[in-house]
Design a protein that fits this description.
Elements (H helix, E strand, L loop, with lengths): L3 E5 L6 H12 L2 E4 L18 H4 L4 E2 L12 H17 L4 E5 L2 H8 L10 H8 L3 H11 L1 H6 L5 H14 L3 H9 L17 E6 L2 H17 L2 H6 L14 H8 L5 H26 L3 E4 L5 H20 L1
Parallel strand pairs: 1-4, 1-5, 2-3, 2-4, 5-6
Length: 314
């Protein structure tokens, strides 16, 4: 079977279990598109699939990267294409599963032609205060300044860097990228193969309840001790949901109840951002899992995946 099938959506929708059962039914293999599950360790914090789920089929890019290593969309794209090529060499369908929107888009759209970082410029920008960064970006690119999280230093610095290195607004480059057709050619396959997939979601109340329950289970299973044992981390790994809150708990800055509540809140906000991203950035067929049983959803997705394989072989 040739081609790639995507199962994407926000956290806590049940993508991992669903994809594993679909892959088992189709004799396919899974390539994870999760920015944090790719790291070794932190199994509870990153909510990696359990052993029973992983045993259903071969999984790639889960727990394969040192927690000290920086990750980005380009590095993920290279690793994912390598895994996909190996899966295809075995005559199998590759199912890409995840909720990291930028990683998914790196595969479906390619990457924005942004310039590489400049060490000297990056150093100068890093020395600036947040207010200075916001003011500079507002002067260089008012559109980007209105869209970027004003509290996210890394994104502010990168947007300013792009403006200064290219002489063009960062928002203009992003707009050009967004206008690309949602298709890609997988290495080793016929040019023009279109990607197919499904965007899974649940009703808001249901997904919030799932997030809350999952966070409580995470704490009950020992995530505090897991975080306590973590040493140095890359700046990418430092962004794991719940890490900041648990560290503040360990420093005595909040109670366990506050920590659980704030972790749940941070995860709900992340899920909301993911929903917005996938609704705007993909043309995958939507599937409301709240309206189906697990078995029905597996059957529905399997049929779509098989259809995409047939189209890819035509």
């Amino acid at each position: 079977m040739k081609g790639v099938f995507f199962i994407v959506g926000p956290t806590a929708t049940g993508k991992s279990d669903l994809a594993a059962d679909v892959a088992r039914d189709l004799n396919a293999e899974i390539v994870s598109a999760d920015a944090f599950q790719i790291y070794r360790g932190c199994d509870l914090l990153t909510e990696k699939p359990d052993a029973a789920t992983l045993a259903k089929t071969a999984h790639h890019l889960i727990g394969t990267m040192s927690i000290l290593e920086e990750m980005n969309a380009e590095k993920f794209r290279q690793l994912a294409f390598r895994a996909i090529g190996e899966i295809h060499a075995r005559g199998k369908l590759a199912i890409v599963v995840g909720g990291s929107g930028l990683y998914i888009k790196a595969l479906t759209h390619g990457l924005s032609p942004s310039p590489a970082a400049d060490a000297n410029l990056r150093a100068r920008l890093t020395e600036m205060s947040m207010n200075e960064l916001r003011a500079r970006l507002l002067d260089l690119d008012p559109v980007a300044a209105g869209k970027i999280d004003a509290k996210n230093r890394r994104r502010l610095v990168r947007a300013i860097e792009i403006c200064l290195l290219t002489g063009k607004p960062a928002s203009a480059q992003r707009r050009q990228w967004n206008e690309k057709v949602s298709s890609t050619t997988i290495p080793g396959e016929t040019a023009g193969v279109t990607t197919h997939g499904v965007f899974v979601f649940r009703g808001r109340e249901e997904i919030y309840q799932r997030i809350n329950c999952r966070a409580e289970a995470m704490f009950e299973n020992g995530v505090i001790e897991e975080v306590r044992a973590i040493g140095a981390m890359s700046s990418t790994a430092e962004k794991m949901i719940g890490l900041k809150e648990i560290r503040e708990l360990l420093e005595g800055k909040m109670s366990i109840l506050q920590c659980v509540t704030m972790t749940q809140q941070a995860t709900r906000r992340y899920a909301k951002r993911q929903l917005t991203w996938f609704r705007r950035q993909t043309n995958f067929e939507p599937l409301n899992l709240s309206l189906l049983t697990h078995k029905e959803a597996v059957k529905w997705i399997s049929r779509r995946a098989l259809r995409s394989c047939a189209q890819g072989n035509d």
